[in-house]
Write a structure and sequence with these properties.
The chain is about 0% helix and about 50% strand.
Length: about 110
């Protein structure tokens, strides 16, 4: 059971992505590194940073680009799994992903209808 008041960050700017379930702000459009990623449920975006997420336990997974250590990320408001954070990449060509976030396209909406 949750105690106390939930702290949420509200992003400024005209192009904000929000959770498709509860509309908590997650990321700004200018934080997208690439839209050429695949998630569990289809298309996904690689973001440099995001807000209002909790990071789960680390897990080694074999993804399309090889073995990575990742941690699922959940919306802090509704607790939906929205993607994952790259914690470690074992191939040199994949190291740019470490510390970055995958958010699945089906899990986000464009806030304010842009």
């Amino acid at each position: 059971k949750k105690m106390g008041r939930l702290y949420k960050t509200y992003l400024e700017g005209p192009r904000v992505y929000a959770c498709s379930s509860c509309h908590a702000h997650l990321a700004q459009h200018n934080q997208i590194i690439s839209k050429q990623f695949q998630g569990r449920h289809g298309k996904a975006y690689l973001f440099d940073s995001c807000v209002n997420v909790t990071v789960g336990p680390k897990d080694d997974r074999i993804l399309i680009t090889g073995l990575h250590t990742v941690a699922d990320i959940c919306c802090v408001e509704c607790e939906s799994v929205i993607g994952w954070k790259y914690e470690e990449a074992y191939e040199e060509s994949q190291k740019y992903k470490v510390g970055k976030f995958i958010i699945e396209k089906v899990k986000i909406v464009k806030e304010c209808g842009w």
